[in-house]
Specification:
This protein has helices at about 5-10, 85, 90-95, 155-165, 185-195, 205-215, 240-250, 250-265; strands spanning about 20, 35-40, 60-65, 65-75, 100-110, 120-130, 170-180, 200, 220-230. It has about 260 residues and is an alpha/beta fold. Helix 3 runs parallel beside helix 6 and helix 4 (about 155-165) crosses helix 8 (about 250-265). The N and C termini lie far apart (about 35 Å). The mean pLDDT is about 90.
């Protein structure tokens, strides 16, 4: 049975201008929205539930200045057993709420020493190594074969860089690879990914971007680099460490995000 997006939207305060998907350890930003109202995803009919630590399972709708934001505290992943058409539920809900813009965030591991744990990465392109696409099933939910030239809106990327300079927050452009997970990459895989041109890797985000493109939404992507991949790092990787580093950069992440949302058109 397909998800009834309209039945979910009827339980949410609408409308909203920007959809914001908050990744591992970054969900706290939603609690800073003004005049906010929140709904547990458990109270929404058919909404998929996350099984991963750091994903609270709430939708918070509020404001940053004049911008109405629908913030999704947590997402679901392919590695949890959900099919791609379910993973993109937040995007479809945001679009139905009236959002013309989607901001995706995540935690990632760096394949190159150009990035260090705690850095913020502005996603300028991606490599989909999950080999899954929500448009295989949701072909009637938008443009089935969207243009791939600029998944990440150039004007939004310029705005993010401008804001980062104003706020004195280092922000580096890079290419993100998406892997299926839930295991981290081996040393050999990390070397291969670096050779393919990936600066960092995650286990999410790309299906959401594909769905947003099909629906005609502008997309901005910001990744929090929480660790080095095994090809350049010596420490044992652990999801708790991912959340810890994300929490450490939450202040500058929130400051950047708030400034972007206050200036977004």
């Amino acid at each position: 049975m397909r998800l009834d997006v309209n039945s979910i939207v009827r339980k949410l305060p609408a409308p909203a201008d920007v959809g914001l998907i908050l990744g591992s350890g970054l969900g706290g930003f939603a609690d800073t929205l003004e005049n906010a109202q929140s709904v547990s995803t458990r109270d929404l009919p058919g909404y998929p539930q996350s099984t991963v630590a750091g994903h609270a399972g709430r939708i918070v709708i509020g404001s940053v200045g004049d911008t109405r934001v629908a913030a999704f505290q947590g997402r679901v992943h392919l590695y949890e057993g959900y099919p791609p058409e379910v993973v993109v539920t937040p995007v479809r809900v945001a679009h139905a709420l009236g959002c013309k813009t989607l901001i995706v965030t995540n935690a990632s591991g760096a394949f190159t020493k150009r990035f260090s744990p705690g850095d913020l990465l502005l996603i300028e392109d991606h490599i989909n190594l999950q080999f899954r696409n929500p448009l295989h099933s949701l072909w009637d939910a938008g443009v089935r074969i969207p243009d791939t030239s600029f998944f990440y809106d150039p004007e939004l990327c310029k705005l993010a860089e401008h804001v980062a300079l104003e706020e004195k927050i280092p922000l580096k452009r890079g290419t993100l690879a998406a892997l299926l997970g839930p295991t981290y990459e081996t040393r050999a895989e990390a070397r291969m990914l670096a050779g393919l041109g990936a600066d960092a890797g995650c286990m999410s985000t790309i299906p959401e971007v594909l769905m947003a493109a099909a629906l005609g939404m502008r997309v901005l992507g910001i990744s929090c680099v929480t660790n080095w991949a095994p090809n350049i790092g010596a420490s044992v990787l652990d999801h708790d460490d991912v959340q810890r580093v994300a929490a450490q950069v939450s202040e500058k992440f929130a400051r950047l995000l708030r400034a972007i949302l206050s200036q977004i058109k």
